[in-house]
Fold this sequence. Notes:
Layout: H1 21-37, H2 53-57, E1 61-62, E2 85-90, E3 93-94, E4 108-112, H3 113-119, H4 135-142, E5 148-152, E6 162-169, E7 175-177, E8 180-185, E9 190-200, E10 203-213, E11 218-225, E12 232-241, E13 246-253, E14 258-267, E15 272-281, E16 286-295, E17 301-310, E18 315-324, E19 331-341, E20 347-356, E21 361-370, H5 374-381, H6 387-403, H7 409-430
Parallel strand pairs: 1-7, 2-6, 5-8, 6-9, 7-10, 8-10, 9-11, 10-12, 11-13, 12-14, 13-15, 14-16, 15-17, 16-18, 17-19, 18-20, 19-21
Antiparallel strand pairs: 2-3, 4-5
Helix pairs in contact: 1-4, 5-6, 6-7
Amino acid sequence: MAQPVPFLEDFDAVLPGAGTGWLDRLRADAQESFRKSGLPTPRTEAWKYTNLRRLARTGFVAAEANQTTEVTTVPEGIVALEDAYVAVFVNGRFAPSLSSLDGLSEGVEATSLAAKLSADRTSLEGQFSDVTDLPMATLNTGLLSDGLYLKLDDGVALDKPLHLVSIGTAGEEPVSFHPRHLIVSGAGSVATIVESHVGSGAYFSNSVSEVSVGDGAVLNHYKLQNEGPEAYHLAANLVRIADRAVYDNFVLQVGGNLARNEIRSELGERVECRLNGAYLACGEQHIDNTTFIDHAAPNSSSREVYKGVLDENARGVFQGKILVRQDSQKTDGHQLNKTLLLSPGTEIDTKPELEIYADDVKCSHGATTGELEEELLFYLRARGIDPQTARGMLVAAYVGEALDEIQAEAPRAAFQAVVDDWLESRSERQG
């Protein structure tokens, strides 16, 4: 007797846009592919340091659509933006009562992907990427249902950030949901997108974001993962950056039981790409950051700095690869991962990589791991600062350097507030 395939058997409801030929085929092909591959294991190189055994043992059921009405307020822990458009999703489904998308500029379309698939069954054909080499993204495609659809016409500037809030919630049974976000930024457009992922209970969020940055466009894209201690968070971000565009990305991960954020970016010519982040983990948390920068055209630059803080028995993973293709001359690519270990029980697996086929390039990569410097601690203690406060000050300064990579002022201040809360909680645990 055939063993049931995780997640697929629970989704027996009619998905948005069902009955549309191309969409039915897309979902069916993805489901068949996932049935063959199953969940990735450490035998797969990309998942060597992140084991999904705990995820596989948990009996998740599909989140129900009516759960959006059970959440009446947005929980604390999100990025605190004073002025922003807001699109809220509860267990992967759009929650209009919690959202605020009124007053969008002309030339900006922001709606639910489910509504888009139901109302316009042809315009999205061919818009979804082939993700057969990414098992969890393949599962997402097989269950493709809802998410944010955002499109900016050429030359449009979004007057304030768009805040995408994902709320996970579970009752007696663990639930799973698989949001799919499509962001299309037209040529010469300018926008800032901020994501907040929060929630409580045992749930599994398996999201995919497809981001297209048009010729000469500027897109700032910042994400906070601050979910509860029982949450599993797996996210794939697929980014295509056209010629002369600027893409600024920052990811802050502080929550979840197991969390993995994967970014794949393909760069056109004369692109400026920044992929930066910070991760703060304690207890038994496992936080994975995996990135891939594909310099597919000449004269582009990429900068990547990830800084981590691990405490108690937490484990971190950083896998970063820069690929420079043969014709991508004049590439300038730099990558760095630094991790601060605060306790003997912590562990970091870091694997920076360069794969270069062009000969006229400037590329570097590196990784450092260590403890707080005793000389700096001695300096602060000599000035009457107690050991616990001194350690907190050094950790705050270390993470603050990572946050300085965020180009937009308002999101940077909001992310700093999240870091301050984490450091305060750690100080309270230390007593």
